[in-house]
Amino acid sequence: MLIADLHIHSKYSRACSGELTLENIDKWCRIKGIDLVSTGDFTHPAWFNDIEKKLVADGAGFLILKEAPTSPNPSSGRRGVNPRFILGTEVSCIYRQGGHRKGGASQTRRLHLCLYLPDLESVRKFNEELTKRGCNIRSDGRPILGLSGKEIVKIIKAISPRGQVIPAHAWTPWFSVFGSKSGFDSLEECFEELTSEIFAIETGLSSDPAMNWRLSALDKIALVSNSDAHSLPNLGREANVFDLDIQKTDYDELFKTIKEKNPQHFLKTIEFYPEEGMYHYDGHRACGINWKPKETKKHKNICSVCKKEVTVGVLNRVEELADRPEGYKPAGAVPYTSLVELDKIIAEAVGVKSRKSLAVGREYDKLIKNGGNEFNILLNLDLAELKKITLLEIVEGIRRVRAGEVKLAAGFDGEYGKVSIFTPQEKKDRQKGLF
User: Fold this and answer.
1) Mean pLDDT, residues 142-147 taken together
2) Which domains does the chain have, with CATH numbers?
């Protein structure tokens, strides 16, 4: 089994942790149980320099940290296996292009794309090509490019036919291929004659596969999920699980497996509950307006407080484009599992508000030491095993998450939603020692 997180960032991206170094990413992949991770940000000169200096090619289109720990992975059955890096990045395309909406008139498009290349020389050529075109790749790990999505596909494929392009967080309002603020109504509108090169989209934190299954236009498109991590603890908060061996597979087989989306080989995606994402519902954060699509329609998209247009979220946008009812599942669809991150479960179980508290950190470290890694704990260890290595309240929290026994308050307009595992009464009882 291979767990892959194919979209993260480095310390050179805006609003990202300075702790996102290659050494730390490698370390946290071991903690999380991630076998394959994107380098992120390969267009940034300083980060690409780090990649060249600190990673070494493994001969299969991936890279390994040169100075890897001597005991790479403590998890059961994976001892001695180093996490691999794949050369990946995210770019922000801001440009003008027409479409079916608004009478086909040209409008500003804001599109984020995940890009992958098979070797360092291809990355070097891609970065040189962007520089020749006047793009500023030094200002941010996720550079803003005045190039269309279609043009990016052309450049990538001209440099390497093995290069791949996957639209990032495809539904978020402001920067995505289907976004309510600046996106398109179809992949064909965006990529035109090059649409056949797009075989997958990233669902993003605010949508899950079930929402995407409502669009028949996506039946031939693979659905991938990645963390888009801006800090180390968020690595793997969404990921992809394949029936592949990281020591035997290669770059081309990975993308072949994604493209074919055969559930015997592409086993599942690991998902946020989409309500927990920042743009699931519609609304205005400043005004405290948080609406389901029906409420937004009732108000004709206008905020009842400030009288300005609300930010239309992912659920509303999916319903706008969907041609199938809620609950529809295509034959042969790749399944998914919705999880809550381990430190969030611990925080609820021990009764603290912050996942960054010392109490959470102590229990988390203890669990990782005895349980192998986070994914092994959340997905694999049975409850009897968990009871031997952690508090009963934490075991119950993990059980409830596995069973989907959670309560959800949806995120909106850039504010994360909330997942509750224990009821308010249970929290009070725990404080009194009754739970």
Assistant:
1) 97
2) 1-339 (3.20.20.140), 340-431 (no CATH)
